[in-house]
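Researcher: Let's do a round of design. I'm pasting the structure tokens now; please hold your answer until I've finished.
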């Protein structure tokens, strides 16, 4: 059995039933022995309490827990308070992001870009946290150019990020190209590919359009063609994503970060096919 660093992402459940369900999902995914479970954070602090409570529960179960922290719409005082809470709770890893301003929220706050948050975390808490940042092999949708986006990524690393997790993608070449470009800038931090298992075509298509991840035409057409046939979508998705992971690991990716969408089945099946842990 190979040792590949795995990490698994959840979103904070909104209801007590969701909390119970996630507890069960987490128990199942724990067999993969991930380096950490991470929990997303709504920009502007909209999920602050729910993120913290999921993180506390994960840590209490004895797993490494990494809260995401987005800074857009926040003040320094706000972020300082959250960092203190996490420090007190014994958290050692954060995923530091800019986030997107929720519609209706006019105030951008005191941080403009994620590199400013990374710098603030380092100034406030020294080396206490292992800081992850986001990377975009297919480029962030608001980037003025790939060159600017690479420079923005390098600024996050130079501000003190320890490692990065990518937006999901289905084109391995984009990842390898991105890593090469980053290395050419002298940035050496590990860049772990973010993996999105395929469960539902219309949701995935909508989400991909919004976040600038490309759903390649051949995949889109194939998935469209399955219509409501969930079983075929699942089977095709598992084949495509497992093959993608194989290519990434063979090509030198340091690990895999799964966007679990608070589900266990697809992540477990992909890891089983890859002969990782379970
Ligand atoms: C692994 C991962 C986890 C995520 N988790 C969450 C989450 O929990 N909550 C959430 O709300 N969102 C999350 N996101 C989404 C993320 O917040 C959005 O993609 C957001 O739009 C950008 O955040 P960032 O940290 O990458 O921003 P940045 O690194 O600040 O980049 C944002 C944009 O600004 C540009 N830029 C950076 N610096 C400058 C500059 N000085 N001048 C001009 N342009 C600049 C960049 O090129 C890019 O286009 C996640 C994304 C990833 C990949």
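Researcher: That's everything. Go ahead.
Model: Designed sequence:
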């Amino acid at each position: 059995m190979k040792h590949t660093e795995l990490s698994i992402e959840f979103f904070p459940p909104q209801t007590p039933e969701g909390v119970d369900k996630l507890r069960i999902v987490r128990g199942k995914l724990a067999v993969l022995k991930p380096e950490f479970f991470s929990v997303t954070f709504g920009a502007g602090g909209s999920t602050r309490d729910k993120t913290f409570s999921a993180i506390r529960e994960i840590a209490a179960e004895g797993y490494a827990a990494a809260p995401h922290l987005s800074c857009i719409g926040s003040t320094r005082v706000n972020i300082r308070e959250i960092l203190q809470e996490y420090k007190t709770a014994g958290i050692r890893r954060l995923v530091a992001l800019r986030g997107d301003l929720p519609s209706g929220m006019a105030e951008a706050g005191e941080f403009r870009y994620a590199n400013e948050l990374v710098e603030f975390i380092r100034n406030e808490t020294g080396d206490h946290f292992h800081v992850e940042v986001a990377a975009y092999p297919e480029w962030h949708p608001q980037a003025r150019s790939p060159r600017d986006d690479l420079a923005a990524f390098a600024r996050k690393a130079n501000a003190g990020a320890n490692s990065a997790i990518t937006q999901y993608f289905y084109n391995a070449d984009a990842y390898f190209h991105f890593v090469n470009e980053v290395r050419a800038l002298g940035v050496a931090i590990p860049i772990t590919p973010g993996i999105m298992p395929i469960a539902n075509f219309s949701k995935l298509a909508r989400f991909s359009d919004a976040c600038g991840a490309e759903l390649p035409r051949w995949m889109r057409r194939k998935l469209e063609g399955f219509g409501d046939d969930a079983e075929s979508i699942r089977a095709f998705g598992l084949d495509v994503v497992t093959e993608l992971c194989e290519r990434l690991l063979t090509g030198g990716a340091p690990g895999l970060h799964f966007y679990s969408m608070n589900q266990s089945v697809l992540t477990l099946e992909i890891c089983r096919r890859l002969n990782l842990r379970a």
